[in-house]
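Predict structure. Chain length: 313.
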Amino acid sequence: MQPHQAPSFQGLTTIRDFIRWTYSRFNQADIFYGHGADNGWDEAVHLVLQSLALPWDIDKALFDCQLTDEEKQHVASLIHQRIEQRIPTAYLVNQAWFCGLPFYVDERVLVPRSPIAELINNQFNPWLQANKVERVLDLCAGSGCIGIACAYAFPDAEVDLTDISTEALQVATVNVDQHELTHRVSPIQSDLFQQLPTQRYQLIVSNPPYVDAEDMADMPAEFHHEPALGLEAGADGLDLAKQILAKAADYLAVDGLLVVEVGNSQWAMEEQFPQVPFTWVEFEHGGHGVFVLSAADCQRYQSAFQAAINKAV
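Prediction complete.
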């Protein structure tokens, strides 16, 4: 097979055939899983079914349905792009799942994959009283998946989605519309808190850029299709997280909660702020580097967070 030439799919006729063929091709290729699936089989099923506009819970009897010639060409083209160009499947089919909900995605936003989903499904128990949540802020919202999922978790709450990227907010707006939440969820262009009116939230949750310089240099090719603005966060990966910590107290309600994902930069955070009582979440379904901090502690250590920013300037 010549480089960048799609292999023949002659002899393949059914959905089952294409899933098996895709799985085999993935196993032969050095592709990275980490944008919605962690193995070749799940990603093969995702790509084939979504490219045919079929749901996850399709009746398995339909796996023996034959594809039209046009469908075969379409599926084979996406498989070729996934392998040769290392484009994440979510971008190829313009759909990702988060908290059991479908979201439109393209290369203007990161592919949803945060372990914060587990916290949302549990309504942030035991740190938050769900019946007291009136306002939620999703900082660095990207596709809006975290904030929209919070709107489902707290059906009486209003949710603000903020992002510095107008392109990301265009995607978030699509998702707000598709989930019919325009009456409760508001996309807002803002550089963190800067363009927000001063108001109080019971929950501020953020999956900001947190990839440090070393990890950026070592990332698999798939990540280079994502917007660098949503990944890069300086030498230690904490450029934005520290800014969030320095201002969160001004926007949290008295009994509010701050939840921030910093991934592998957890160790740098602990080293820089050893006096701060971060609670690092232990996830049942995998993931790390997410802390929760009470409004009281955000207030108590605000001067330390601000001093760290001033020191870095």
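Summary: The longest strand covers residues 252-261.
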